[in-house]
Amino acid sequence: MDSIFQGLPAILHQGQVQVHRHGEGIHLQTAFGLVVRYDFYHYVAVTAPPGYQGRLCGLCGNNNGKSEDDFLFPDGHPAPNAIAFGSAWKMPTMACEESCSEDDCPVCTEEKKKVFQKPNYC
């Protein structure tokens, strides 16, 4: 983070990145075709250009069109569950540490887990 605030709409890096409000959220688009939509609450949609098909990895999968092989650890092995999967992709930071212990972390109900594990969730 460079701690620079920019009002929207914003055109950055000579037009290479454009960000504007879209409905109740924002829409970011790069010159090479990456699109990020964020609703300011919890929903983020990332769309990569076709040239990146099958060349990506991470929380949103590998972009090969097959959802069954998206739930992988960084080493390519299948993750046993969502918590292990998400934790494996955490980036180390110098400014933040885990803010909760096992005893005081928010708990996802079984009902919510079923919803979040459906194929339409990234």
Overview of this protein structure:
With 122 residues, the chain is α+β, with helices and mostly antiparallel strands. It has helices spanning 82-88, 110-116; strands at residues 10-12, 17-22, 25-30, 35-38, 44-47. It has a 5-stranded antiparallel β-sheet, with no helix packed on it. A hairpin with a 4-residue loop joins strand 1 (10-12) and strand 2. The longest helix has 7 residues, at 82-88. The radius of gyration is 17 Å and the shape is globular. The model has no long low-confidence stretch (mean pLDDT 81).
Percentage of residues in strands = 15-25%
Largest sheet: 5 strands, antiparallel
Averaged pLDDT:
81
| Number of helical stretches of at least 4 residues | 2
Uncertain segments are: none
| Main structural class | alpha+beta
Task: Assign an overall shape.
Answer: globular
Radius of gyration: 17 Å
Separation of the first and last Cα atoms: 24 Å
Q: How many strand units?
A: 5
Strand order of the largest sheet: 1-2-3-4-5
Helix content: 10-25%
Q: What string, H for helix and E for strand, traces the elements in order?
A: EEEEEHH
Describe what is shown at a glance.
With 122 residues, the protein is of the alpha+beta class. The protein contains two helices and five strands, in the order E-E-E-E-E-H-H.
